[in-house]
Structures are given as structure tokens and as C-alpha cells.
Amino acid sequence: MDVKLNGRMKRLTGVALLSMLMNTATAAPETRLEYLSVDEINQWMDRGQLTSATLVQHLLERVEKLDRNGPKINAVIELNPDALAMAEAMDQERKGGYIRGPLHGIPVLLKDNIDTSDEMQTSAGSLAMVGQPAAQDAFIVQRLRAAGAVILGKTNLSEWANFRDPAIPSGWSGRGGQTKNPHLLSGDPCGSSSGSAAAVAAGFAPLTVGTETAGSIICPASFNGVVGIKPTVGLLSRSGIIPVTQKLDTPGPMARTVRDAALLLNAMAVDDPADPIQKPRELKGVDYTALLRPGSLVGKRIGYPAKFDRGNLPLLIDPQFSKALELMQSAGATLIPVDLTDPRSERVDEAFFMGIKRDLPRYLATRMCIPAQTMEDLLLFNAANTEGRGQSTLLAAKEVVFDEKTYNQLWRKIQGENAAAIDELLTTHQLDALVSDVGSAAMNVVPLAGYPGIMVPSGIDEEGVPTSIFFFGPRWSEARLLALAYGYEQLANARRTPAFKP
User: Fold this and answer.
1) Domain 28-283 = CATH 3.90.1300.10
2) pLDDT tens across 265-280, in order?
3) Hey, which residues are catalytic here?
4) Ramachandran quadrant class, 251 (left: phi over 0; alpha: psi -120 to 50; beta: rest)
């Protein structure tokens, strides 16, 4: 949306413009600074009607008002004391005619398991990790800084990315407390990237970065009504991110629109020689916004869960998803009912435990002057500081018998089975992609395959909780999936601003 300004408003800048915007009762919600898209922010900055420093100051005040106080969303675990200085530096570069790209001066929040070499902690929400900050930025953070992004702070998460104990509520961490869903404060924010999803939904930043091992981006994106991209494993670097298992771990963009998420993906999708998975050569330099244009659904063959092709049942299951299918069909897509079979791979838990035992100690060894520099340190710290919370997953990881050959064989089988379930449908029905509701097998199969998926808002249910549609496809198909997701998003206009309903 291009914001139109009258002559008087065009002469206003900085704090004066901010004050007028926030005090204009008749202004549409989407003209408020906290809900501007990246393109809109850039347009305002280019016209001299907004600075990065003004935007950052506004967002810091909004976090204080709604995250620390008021409804107390608890999405932001820590703010960056250098954020304003970074914003001012980007403003000076812009004033001097140097603009690094579309993220120049744009505030970004990072999940608190992504290393930053500044004054902020990187703790995975655990008090056992609080101490000396990380020695260097994660690779994706290096790329964001190079793109001119302002690192606004860190977001809360399910402690240890939901791999401490399954009984711990989604969105809770010992360091950050309980994240709330800004749409329905008593509702589930989902995990583990709950803080990243809730923060972007609540207007604390236009862009956030989450991480996923098995559902930790796509689930909170759905429940909080935002766009979440779970990339192909290996598309984005995992260097400097607290691991669960390198077989599935990935960071991913979270934003309010598909285009904003694609812009964030562009900034991070650069080859990292230190990451064990190297991308295909043809992906080098891909612009993930290039295919975002009207008509992207025309002629595309898209598979959908066959349960939505059975009489009146779909309206009872998920009326918003049924409407989404109708919209895509009306836009020229050919929809094919399919049944995605969940292989229900054996020994998945064991494979995760082995991944933690293999990869987490290596990461801990890179951190200095924190209580937990080994797995044993971590378990002892948690035992002495329980807060009524268990650590059964971490204990199981300590006890599992680890063997590198067995570990690789397990993951090769698990990923192969789940990838084959998707590939068979794509080939048999000659599909460009598939879509799913959040109650179908794709929520398990896609992450375990290591395949990409994009969650996009489809509306809101009668309780005020967001609903979503999930686009997924073969390895490295992000550009194609983004085009389809964008086509649907433009038709549906289904994202809703949170009501902070009790």
C-alpha cells in the first residue's frame, strides 16, 4: 500500500510526523508506523518524511507500552542498547546518498538463539547461558548488518527451541517468561519461534528472524497470523545459531507480508563456506522477490488435502482454508485433491536426541564465561534452578548412545521417507506445489523432509485466533512457492491486526 500524504503532511518530518500519525483518530490502522511494510518505510525515508532513528524510537516505545506493560506480550526478551546509534548511522549514510539496499535502516528482531557479538545475550531463553555475549555474529547476522538492517533486539522463545522438556508450555523460557499471542492473550502462541511471530504481529518490528527444527517457524506463524518461511535445510547458514541438529535446523524470515519475508530472505541467502550443506550453483544470486507479481497462480497445478473435497465437511474443518482454495481456483489455478501420507518414521526422537548430543556441546565450547559450557554444566544448572520445569529431553540426549554412522543412517532414512512422500505426489499429479491446512500431515512431513514451506494468513476464526494456509514443495523451490503465496495473499488480503483480546 502506497501511503498518500497531503501537502501539510509532506512538510512534516521526524517526531512531528510521528506525533500526528499516532494522534489522528481517523487514520486507517495500516498507516501507523508500526504496521508499515518495508517498501512503505523506504518510500517515506526516500521522501524525507521518516528516519530510521524515528522509527526505531517509536518501536522501542511500543515495546515498552505493550510488551513490558499493558497486555505484556513478552515477545521481546532483550532490546539492543545500540539500536538507536545504528539507526542514526544508517540515516547518515542515506543522507550522504549511500543506500545499501531495501533493508537499509529497517529494524529487525532476532530469535534469542542467534549469536550477536554486541552487548546482548544469546541464551536460547536459558538462564544457564547468561554471561559473556557471543564472540562473533552468526553468519546471517553479518549479512543483515551488511544490508543495513538495524538489529533492534532479541525475541523470546520456547526454551532451548522446545527441546528442554515437552511439558513446558509453548513460548515459555526461564529467562523470558511466557510469550502471549497478541490476537488472543489467553491463546497458544505456539513455539519455539513464538516471540518472533508475536513480535512482528504486534508491530514491534517489521521483520523478525525465527528458527525451525520441526515446526518452530510454521506453527507460530500460523497461530500469530503472520508470514513465516521455513527454507530448505541449507539455504540459509546455521553458523552461530544454537543447534538442535544440523540435519534439520534452519533460520527463516517472519514478516507481515510475503514480499517483506522475501526481502529478508534475500539478505540472508548467501553462501557460507562453514555450513556443511552447500546450495546448488543455480541459486547463487537469486532474487526471491522477482516472481512476486499478479497472475502468479494462473495455470499452476496445486495439490490440496483430499479431505477438503468431501461434501460439506470442509466448512466444518476449516472454512477459511476452504475459501482459500476457492480463491486460488478463481484466480486460474488447477486444484487437485491428494492424500499426503505421513510415513511416521521410526526412531525420530532418538535421532533428535543424538543430534543434540552431537551438535550442542560443540556450540557450548565456543561460549566463554557462562554457567553452561558443557552439557553436564547445563543439566546441573537446570536441576538446581528448576522453577518447577523439567528437562527430560536434555536428559535423554545425555543418555542416548551416540554413533556417527548410526546417526547419519537414521536421518538419511527419516528424511528420505518424508521427502519421498512429497515427491511422489508432485510427480504423479505433475504438481507445481502443494497447500495444506495446519491440521494435516504436511506439518510433520515437510520439516522432517527438510523441504521448504511458507505459512500465509487466511483469516481469523470465531474466537479471534488467526488461520493460515501452508504452501510447500520440493527442495530449493522457495522462489516458486513465494510467487504462489504472493498470488494468494494479494487476492485474500486476509491478515488481521491483533486485537489484544483477553
Assistant:
1) yes
2) 999 999 999 999 988 9
3) 111, 192, 216
4) beta
